[in-house]
Amino acid sequence: MSNLVTVTNLSTHYPLGQRFFGEAPVLKAVDQVSLDIPKGSFVGLVGESGSGKTTLGRAILRAAPISSGTVRYNDGEVDYDVGALDKAQLKDYRTRAQLIFQDPYAALSPRMTVRDIIAEPLEVMKLTKSREETDERVREIAAKCRLNLEHLRRFPHAFSGGQRQRISIARALVTGPKFVVADEAVAALDVSIQADILNLLKSLQNELDLTFLFISHDLSVVAHVCDHVAVMYHGVIMEQNETRALFANPQHAYTRSLLSAIPSLDPDDRHRAVVYDPTA
Amino acid sequence: MSLLSVKDLTIRFRTDEGLITAVENVSFDIAPGEVLGLVGESGSGKSVTAKALMQLNGGNTVYDPASKVVLNLPDTQPLDILSFKRERDMGVIRGGAISMIFQEPMASFAPAITIGKQMVEQLMLHTDMSKDRARKHSIDMLDRVGIKDPDKRIDQYAFELSGGMRQRAMIAMALSTSPKLLIADEPTTALDVTIQAQVIDLMKDLVAEFGMGILFITHDLGVIAQTADRVSVMYLGRIMETGPVRDVIRNPAHPYTKGLINALPKLDDLDAPLTPIPGDIPSPLERPPGCVFHTRNPDHVPGSRYEREVPPMSQVSPDHFAALFPEDVA
Amino acid sequence: MSDMTDQASQASIDQRRKEAYFTASQRQLIWARFKKQRAAMVAATILMALVLMGVFAPFLSPYDPTIKGRDKDYTNGAPQIPQFCDHNGCSMRPFIYGVKRERSIQTNFRWVTSIDTEDRRYVQWFVRGDDYRLFGIKGNIHLFGVDKGFIHLFGTDDTGKDIFSRTLHAIYTSLAVGTLGVLISFVLALIIGGVAGYYGGWIDGVIQMITDAFRTIPIIPLFMAIAAFIPDTWSSETRFFFISIIIGFINWPTLARRVRTHLLVERTQEYVLAAQLCGAGPGHIIRRHLLPSFTSYIIVDLVISFPYIVLSETALSFIGLGLKDPVNSLGVLLQNTTSADVLLNYQWYFIPVFFFIALVMAFVFVGDGLRDAADPYGGQKK
Amino acid sequence: MAVFTLLLVSLIVFTLMELVPGTCAERYLAFKNTQGSGISVEDIQAEERRLGLDRPFLVRWGTWVGNAFRGQFGDSCILRLNINSLLADKFWISLGICLTALFLAYLIAIPVGIIAASSENATLNNSLRFISYLGLAMPNFLLALMIMLVSTVVWGDSLTGLFSNEFRDAPWSWDKVMDFLGRAWLPVFVLGWSATAFALQTVRALMLDEQSKLYVTAARARGLYGRRLLWRYPARHALGPIVNSLGFDLNRIFNELPIVALILTLTEAGALLLGALAQSNDQQLAGAIIFLLTATIVAVNFFTDILLALVDPRVRRSVLGANA
């Protein structure tokens, strides 16, 4: 199986403020990371806050700067070096790779109707020829994301978290992308809704032949939906493996610590968490 | 005798859209040394309930006259908390007999006052310690929750500590006056998993050491399974099910509890399908009549009495109750 | 059975009400919240009335406010209140008394005005009078007048100009200067604040420094310095524009900071990134996302800054550096009240003062109400 | 930083002064003309050379600013008097009046604003709101006017000026000070009136903002209540932004000063400025006054920044760097 996205030695460094004296310190948000995302796979990227997982996901989409290293995207039709796209290529890449956000409240423009939000990518990129065609596409994808078509006239403030996330997904998928980065797509949702969105993502993957990079801090969620998992800590990938293998036999001490930290649902299994010490 | 007894607590808020019911007929008891978990999703009214125990809800809150919150302290008359109208009366209880820790430790420390000053202030308010003793005691408490260099940290500000450290300091402050009841309002939600695990371990140790009653509020059933003795499950301001934590998690009686457990991804069985609870949580403006959950219950029979009547708390097993009509309790 | 249909119709009404809420745009929601504030609504009504009075001043006022419309026989005349009844009986049509002006040995050869209660002058509607232009249309019909002589609801000034007419026209001028000033400062603020907020970084730093420097200068003394050099030969229109520009300059730094802050906040919102990932260019993002996201706040800011602009104009005119007779603004009218003589003898000079205060207060209250209504957290405040 | 702002401001002021048509020389000689002495174009040029007006713009600005920073403002254009001696007392007196007004405004606004924000009494809140709006809407020159007129009627003394006639030119003495104080309250009151209204708004808004924060709830949950809670928590944290607004409030008072001065015929800086401008077109003098006013505001801002760093550890940290 060929790789849809190949990340090689990718680094993203941010300057940390300005200093009058000496060299400005940098934040190594992502440091020499390599990651393969096979076509049709559901790759999980796990890490705690500040681990650089969001930056990595955005760098792949060219929404965060690439300091060094390369990101390659090859879906059979096109073969892009993402760091070196020209304007036309970048525009094309935007139709092929999309992002789903964590916060369903901040990701939707409050002054646009749901129809306008979903239609925006089509209109901006002029992918449709007429308003009728746009509406047709919007209705199609909205139905796939199980949105009530009568609700397209409404504004985002009328929706609950789960519904908003479905709108967000519909917007990301309306251009027919091949690759989707889902950044903590269920973290802000209630448990009863979370499963619904996860199932939706899974079924959309099958139906639309998508490849996912699923970013999350929650190992148990990742374990359920992903077939590959990479564990990130302080800008570095500590361990990556096929999901079952990784959970059955974690190699890195940090992965073990993460696993032990998940509170078990069994009241009789009250073990203490393993504390990870990076210096050990 | 129970330490805290909440009976028929009903809380409404006055808003632009009218009177909104946040909590309805909630009753529970906490015994000394017992950890009661209160689980619920967003909008279930769990935080509002917690704040009601200390009358911390805002000025637009309306407590139903039938609501009773009674605190039984050793050697004193039972205190009817909701009957206190003056801040001064509440002041004795808040931070003294009952302490509270919040979800966001950053936001709950005053940003421009050192942690130490805030701790000493609380101690001097509730005990007759001298300033020096209060400071020594605070350093001791910080040490006990696992903060290194407590004598240095005590003179720092909240923004100078890391997230986990702040939550530890918050716990140290809450426990410094040896309260009889600790209310922990989502104390681990804002933390990373590894830090969350450490804080949970710390709280388990402290329960063993101090023996106070705890009301532990969270949306995470796993956290409850790890910490609580008994659990109450809330949905849209009502208690759906309550009982010993093992009974409720292993043999849930209420469809909502069952749904919650089925929706949760479990690490030990990766092939188990995730079953969501259908539909969305209704907005507080559209509280369903009858059983508030019937609109999302997958097994709901249209036209049944759950659409009109509020089901009573029926006994499932000793100590285990669910908001179902008796004929539906298996 | 009818019970059932009642319930059904009630449910459908509920449903429609909810649907209206869900499909309500931000503007409709703000309006709905604004309507609930009684003080702001009262202020808005007063404001609307004042604005209409200003706009239709030429029609509503019986006379030309300049020296053209003066009443030579009634200088420093007291207000004439129309009445229906007097000792001679009542009439359906309101009337005022005529006045006589005479000078004789009895009055020490000074002009003395006396009221002749036998001389009734009836109020007429839609009378022909001085020519005026309203929206470019010539007219000479005025809302009311009297059958003979003049009527002065608010009295006259020392040259016999009708204070009522002057007040209405002054409201118009003050509003016009204010609007022009707000527009000028708004354009400046949008450009300067917009550049700073959208680009951020060092550009923002430099612009902020300059804005802050501008904010430090006490602007009124500075512009007094400039206004003092306005040649007396300037026409009243030129003067009017110059004052508007000055006032626009007074106000821009505050607005520019607001624009910048809004932009800085909104720029980092996820929905902006979402639009960028759709391949939207800066133009599209500014037009479709950023501008709509804060127009309501900017409008609120504009309304709030309005009273200060009116105040500035008044202050400048008041010290004689702004607009001058024959142009009529509230500031010019207030200037007339400066002498003790006025307080002692001609109290009606103060009537425009109340209009001025009402105008400014109405603006302040409306602005405040709008601010509360547009506050996204307002509804959640406990 | 403060010096930089001042430089920038001086450039703006100087440029605007330059933009005004006519140079100092032209104007002085034109003034002389009216006094009967005949002046020719050559005279003007000679005068311009003498005053250094033929030098490039930036050089003149540099000289002006250099002198200004040393407190030397040169001679007045028309009056031909040293500006320093012309201003001296007058500037200090007006500064004193403004600062007193500012001080009094906050002395009233802080407690009242805090009480207004923490009280849930709707009548009290609404009436305070109304009063402070009235303060905003009623320009203080109107207020000054009213008081003056009333006092003229009631006491037969218009209360104008800062000194009674017999003291106007007298050297400073105890009696003169008392006389001064007896009259200075009026401008202070008038200037303080709208300043208080503004400050009240600021304080109330800031307090409402702070009170809704979680740390206040947390402090209540620890048993604090009433005044102790109010002063130690929200009030203390709202102090920073209040201190921050001092400079701009002073600016506002300066803005109103000349107008009030005009009505009350005070002969201090504001009215002097007005006179300098309106009658004699004296840009040297006007520039000096505006420079001094701005320098005062910059200085106040500088001190409030220091004060802020003392009050708020977060600011201290960002000023001194992360290691402090």
Give the helix/strand layout.
The complex is a heterotetramer of chains A (280), B (330), C (382) and D (324).
Chain B: E1 4-15, E2 18-30, E3 35-40, H1 46-52, E4 61-63, E5 68-71, E6 79-80, H2 87-93, E7 98-101, H3 105-108, H4 115-126, H5 131-144, H6 150-153, H7 163-175, E8 181-185, H8 193-210, E9 213-218, H9 221-227, E10 230-235, E11 238-244, H10 245-250, H11 255-263, E12 313-317, E13 320-323
Parallel strand pairs in B: 3-9, 3-10, 7-8, 8-9
Antiparallel strand pairs in B: 1-2, 1-4, 1-5, 5-6, 10-11, 11-13, 12-13
Helix pairs in contact in B: 4-5, 5-7, 7-8
Chain C: H1 2-22, H2 26-35, H3 38-55, H4 57-60, E1 83-86, E2 89-102, E3 112-134, E4 137-146, H5 163-199, H6 201-216, H7 219-227, H8 236-267, H9 270-277, H10 282-318, H11 330-335, H12 340-345, H13 351-374
Helix pairs in contact in C: 2-13, 3-5, 3-13, 5-6, 5-8, 5-10, 5-13, 6-8, 8-10, 9-10, 10-13
Chain D: H1 2-19, H2 24-34, H3 41-51, H4 57-69, H5 83-118, H6 122-137, H7 140-155, H8 174-211, H9 214-221, H10 226-263, H11 269-278, H12 283-311, H13 313-320
What does this structure look like?
The complex is a heterotetramer of chains A (280), B (330), C (382) and D (324). Chain A has helices spanning 53-60, 87-96, 114-124, 131-144, 161-173, 191-208, 219-225, 243-248, 253-261, and strands spanning 3-15, 26-38, 42-46, 68-74, 79-81, 97-100, 179-183, 211-216, 228-233, 236-242. Chain A is α/β, with parallel strands linked by helices. By secondary structure, chain C is α+β, with helices and mostly antiparallel strands. Chain C has 2 domains: 80-151, no CATH class; 167-381, MetI-like (MetI-like fold, Orthogonal Bundle), CATH 1.10.3720.10. Chain C has helices spanning 2-22, 26-35, 38-55, 57-60, 163-199, 201-216, 219-227, 236-267, 270-277, 282-318, 330-335, 340-345, 351-374; strands spanning 83-86, 89-102, 112-134, 137-146. In chain C, helix 3 (38-55) packs across helix 13, helix 6 (201-216) crosses helix 8 (236-267) and helix 10 (282-318) runs antiparallel to helix 13. The longest helix of chain C has 37 residues, at 163-199. Chain D is mainly α. Chain D folds into 2 domains: 2-72, no CATH class; 93-320, MetI-like (MetI-like fold, Orthogonal Bundle). Chain D has helices at 2-19, 24-34, 41-51, 57-69, 83-118, 122-137, 140-155, 174-211, 214-221, 226-263, 269-278, 283-311, 313-320. Chains in contact: A-B, A-C, B-C, B-D, C-D.
